[in-house]
Amino acid sequence: MGLGRRLIAMEQPILAGHELSMWGYVVLTALSRRTVRTQSALATAIGADKTRLIPILDDLQHRGLIHREPDPADRRARLLALTPAGTALHQQIQAAIRIAENDLLAALPESDRHGFLAALRALHT
After folding, report:
1. Is the pLDDT of residue 3 over 80?
2. SS3 125
3. Are 30 and 24 in contact (CB under 8 A)?
4. In degrees, to the nearest 5, what angle opens at C-alpha 33 toward C-alphas 85 and 25?
5. What distances in angstroms separate CA 15 from CA 35, 61, 63, one per listed residue?
6. pTM, 2 dp
7. How far is the C-alpha of 1 from the C-alpha of 92, rounded, in Å?
8. pLDDT tens digits along 33-44
9. Mean pLDDT score, 87-94
10. Distance (Å) of CA 111 to CA 10, 22, 61, 107
11. How far apart are CA 46 and CA 66, in angstroms?
12. What residue stretches are annotated with the HTH marR-type domain (predicted)?
């Protein structure tokens, strides 16, 4: 199994334990960075179709994890933000994922682990 698939397989039970889909987690992560404010910008940032994103946003809003309100400057646009509950849930999930990632990386010597993570960060940007 490739690393990407292994990471997804590791994250799935964590997300399921919080009754969150991978797309829901992607949305929470994007909103936690505060780099997107509108539904349209969010869809572009995460590579999702705007119309397919709506049910995910509906679910997150219904669960009290995000706020969605009309943009005063453009009533057709919706502004998005995490609620305190959304922030807390995202932090819990991220902490659990970090623990699982550390377990996965424990097979590497610490010096190799730091180099590997540095390389991933460099490739990600």
Report:
1. no
2. coil
3. no
4. 55
5. 23, 17, 15
6. 0.85
7. 27
8. 988 888 989 999
9. 97
10. 23, 31, 43, 12
11. 16
12. 1-125
